[in-house]
Specification:
The structure is a single chain. Helix content is 35%, strand content 21%. By secondary structure, the chain is of the alpha/beta class. The chain folds into three domains: 133 residues, 3-Layer(aba) Sandwich (D-Maltodextrin-Binding Protein, domain 2); 94 residues, 3-Layer(aba) Sandwich (D-Maltodextrin-Binding Protein, domain 2); 117 residues, 3-Layer(aba) Sandwich (Oxidized Rhodanese, domain 1), CATH 3.40.250. The strands form four sheets. The protein has a five-stranded mixed β-sheet, sandwiched between helices. It has a five-stranded mixed β-sheet with strand order 7-6-8-5-9, with helices on both faces. The protein is globular, with a radius of gyration of 26 Å.
Length: 391
């Protein structure tokens, strides 16, 4: 017996067409809750079903939620824009904000992190050959440690050992037990410890303010009305799901600093003078040379006016302790009439680009007397409205 297909009535057909048109707009939204391994209790307090229900009601469409304490995996997800909403520590939000997300806010005020060591370690520079206790590699504590060491020109490779564990507070105990020489703790945790313990430890360095608690970011391509309703839910109703209200909005520079600690070049380079675009312009007017270390394609497309081309072929790690022998910078020696006794400026594609950092360090080692580093590179120069050429 052959089934007879009933014709689709006009009204039904119109409804189906409307659903097809509206379908993409009502697509399911995805949420990632990223938790520091040190803060698992915070993750357990979030009620997944309640959070999904509250977010779905606020967004007017289905919202799913997953939780992870594998921060390396979460950071990869931010780089690929793998979720519509990220709820997590500052480094997660900082990465997402550079990739098409906007900040809703945080659940706690900003805080500082401290590098604390045994009394015999009298300065950050004295950390060479020492042991450091930290949580996992993509933990915020690890970002802070890297930044404070980099400021002193020290890499993790300069250390005798980096011990990755789950609980940062246990780092202070590790120092007292002699199994580590230094660790990173939050300012509040250090204050509590110092008030009850003897003076066997010393403070080596203090970070700048870092957004505290959970930061929330959402994709900018979500309709503005939906983003507004989500922000309102986070600010007024999230406690029903176990998530503290998102009522603090840190300055964007605080996230920028966190991003720089994990991905960017250090803010200083021992033996080399870091300069701004305006300062570089002044040096050029006085006869300094500016060397562009990017690829030839980039150089031809757009460059600082008057820049010399000497590509830094980079194979070494993006680290202050990079191995220059793995790289190729023969192009510097081939530049005609480049006087080692005169000022020379190195630049590339901004703070995320390590080529000019490495080139400046190599040049100083080669005997150049006045080496300058334009860390902001072409992006800073261009943003300042200074003259460019090429293209």
């Amino acid at each position: 017996m052959t089934a007879v297909k009933k014709p689709i009535r006009p009204r039904a057909a119109a409804l189906m067409s409307l659903l097809l048109i509206c379908g993409p707009a009502l697509a399911q939204l995805s949420t990632m809750v990223a938790v520091e391994p040190t803060e698992r209790k915070a993750a357990h307090s979030i009620l997944r079903t309640a959070a999904e229900s509250g977010l779905s009601k606020a967004a007017g469409q289905s919202v799913t939620l997953v939780t992870s304490d594998d921060l390396a995996d979460v950071m990869r997800a931010t780089r690929s824009a793998g979720y519509d909403i990220f709820i997590g520590p500052a480094q997660v939000a900082a990465s997402a904000l550079d990739r098409g997300y906007e900040l809703v806010g945080t659940t706690q005020k900003s805080e500082k992190y401290l590098l604390v060591a045994l009394q015999q370690v009298d300065a950050v520079a004295a950390m060479k050959g020492r042991r450091l206790y930290l949580p996992q590699q993509d933990s915020l504590y690890t970002y802070m440690a890297r930044g404070m060491l980099n400021e002193a020109g020290i890499s993790f490779q300069d250390l005798r050992a980096v011990q990755y564990e789950k609980f940062p507070q246990a780092g202070l105990s590790a120092l007292m037990l002699g199994t580590a020489d230094a660790t990173v703790v939050r300012e509040d945790d250090w204050a509590q410890w110092a008030s009850t313990q003897s003076g066997n430890l010393r403070l080596l360095a203090t970070s700048q303010l870092v957004p505290g608690g959970f930061s929330v970011v959402v994709k900018k391509d979500i309709p503005a009305e939906t983003r507004g309703r989500l922000a309102q839910w986070f600010a007024t109703s999230s406690t029903a799901s176990g998530l503290p209200l998102v009522t603090v909005r840190p300055e964007s520079i605080e996230y920028r600093r966190v991003a720089e600690l994990g991905l960017f070049t250090p803010t200083s380079l021992p033996g080399v003078s870091r300069i701004t675009a305006k300062e570089a312009q002044g040096l050029l007017a006085q006869g300094a040379a500016l060397v562009d270390t990017r690829t030839e394609k980039e150089f031809k497309a757009k460059r600082i006016r008057g820049a010399l081309f000497a590509a830094y072929v980079e194979k070494s790690l993006k680290d202050v302790a990079f191995n220059a022998a793995q790289d190729d910078f023969q192009a510097l020696d081939k530049l005609p009439n480049l006087d080692k006794g005169k000022p020379v400026i190195f630049a590339c594609n901004g703070a995320e680009c390590w080529k000019s950092y490495k080139a400046a360090k190599v040049a100083a080692a080669k005997g150049f007397k006045s080496v300058y580093w334009l860390r902001g590179g072409l992006p800073e120069w261009d943003a300042a409205g200074l003259p460019t050429e090429g293209g």
